[in-house]
Amino acid sequence: MSEGSEPASTAVRRDRFSGGPARDFLSSMGADDRIFQADLAVDRAHVVMLAEQGIVEEDDAASILRALDDVEASGFGALPDGEDVHEAIETAVIERVGPDGGKMHTARSRNDEVATCIRYRLREDVLDAVEQVVAFREVLADAAEAEAETVMPGFTHLQPAQPTTVGHYLLSYERALARDTARLLDAYERVNQSPLGGAAFAGTPFDIDRQRTAELLGFDGVVENATDAGSARDFLFETTSALAGLSLTLSGLAEDLVIFANKGLVELSDDYSSTSSIMPQKKNPDTLELVRSVAGDAAAGLQGLLTTLKGLPRAYNRDLQNATPHAWGAVDAVSEAVEVAAGAVATAEWPAETLEAEAEKGFSCATGVADVLAMHGVPFRTAHEVVADAGEAGGDLDAVAAACEDVLGKPLGEVADVEAVAAALDPASNVAMRDSRGGPAPSAVEQTLGVVASDLAADADEAEAKRLALDAATDRLDAGVDSYE
């Protein structure tokens, strides 16, 4: 998408390079539908600024702006042939206005134009993703509150470890998604800077107002250096990296739910499952398996993007045309996966009796018993030895008492409160013991839910404020256009 267009009477032409099989190879039109509206907005803002600065006549600006309205009404599919949507729109304007339509390209290059269009569209995608993740976090928080006392087995290395609760488990993913939200919002700040006015790479002699076009398009500021403006794509890999990180969170949750469904620890809705084409008894967690796989798509997009950008000389290179689709692919794949995962969690059922029964297996209350002994003065490593021996002997209260006799040479009653040890052997009581900040006890989960509610409100408000700022910019641009129509 390099500069060099020369307006003719009816089209943007590059007669010296007008034919040959490379024409299709050079074209990005197949992927440019996504930035059609963005380019129209960028064109309008640029033309309004040119008129305000006296660089083009107001009548010419009005004619160009009316032509852009007609191009928009006709739609992307009606555009003439071109290497890209930017050239095609300019050609369509010239066809409607005549040679003066080519004045819309004064004081800019396709290099800064395309960079601006990408950022303009990508920030919408980032906000969409943020809003989807916030909505998913709300689903997780609601489910965690409803299941705050539902005891379930907790695992490390896929082995029974300690009892926990469904609420505590779900909040672990909400907290991970909160960080994913923060990374997306942070990336948005660097996406939302305007390259427009950088021209090909070395600025322009025209008296343009870059801040004005940034304001009309809703950007927070401008990319200061003209060379950096057209060539920078770090905002793409930062956003794609944040999306890849989000996909890892989703993939982990999906894997857990697939395993839990296999063990009967969660019942997934039929809406998020399928059956076998040959085995009618089966209920497969297919949607979650696809959510799990999206991490591969996002990681591939990130790797493809980084590899494309690696080692490029400074300023614009056509390689950048192939960089952007990697980001679009990650946006689309991960955003869809967020919605599916949220739906699966919202409709899942957690069988309380089955979960609690499973939480007793594998002597998963052992650490709680060791903690009780340590609270009564037994060195933790010694308590660990006592409980390990008790586990080999069956892991019940009698086994703990016998292990105390063997290891400590004392009856259990002299070592610790017998009732406290008995309580630690009960999964629900064991969970209730662990009421430290961030723990699984219902009281601790309630505290975490308070933090979650505050964070969710803040993130939702920030996303809404950014959305309103974009809406306000659209109104400013409309007002600027209307003043010449």
TrEMBL record:
Identify the keywords attached in UniProt to this record, alphabetized: Amino-acid biosynthesis, Arginine biosynthesis, Cytoplasm, Lyase
Catalytic activity, reaction form: 2-(N(omega)-L-arginino)succinate = fumarate + L-arginine
The record, for Gene3D superfamilies, names: Fumarase/aspartase (C-terminal domain), Fumarase/aspartase (Central domain), Fumarase/aspartase (N-terminal domain)
UniProt GO MF annotations: argininosuccinate lyase activity
SUPFAM superfamilies membership: L-aspartase-like
Entry's localization field: Cytoplasm
Q: Which residues form the Argininosuccinate lyase C-terminal domain?
A: 363-393
List residues of the Fumarate lyase N-terminal domain: 49-296
Q: What is its main location?
A: cytoplasm
Its EC number is 4.3.2.1
Any one GO biological process: L-arginine biosynthetic process via ornithine
Reading the lineage from the top rank, the first entry is Archaea
Q: Does the keyword Repeat apply?
A: no
Q: Which PANTHER family does the UniProt entry name for this protein? A: ARGININOSUCCINATE LYASE
Family classification: Belongs to the lyase 1 family. Argininosuccinate lyase subfamily.
Q: Mind telling me what this protein is named?
A: Argininosuccinate lyase
Q: Which organism is it from?
A: Halocalculus aciditolerans
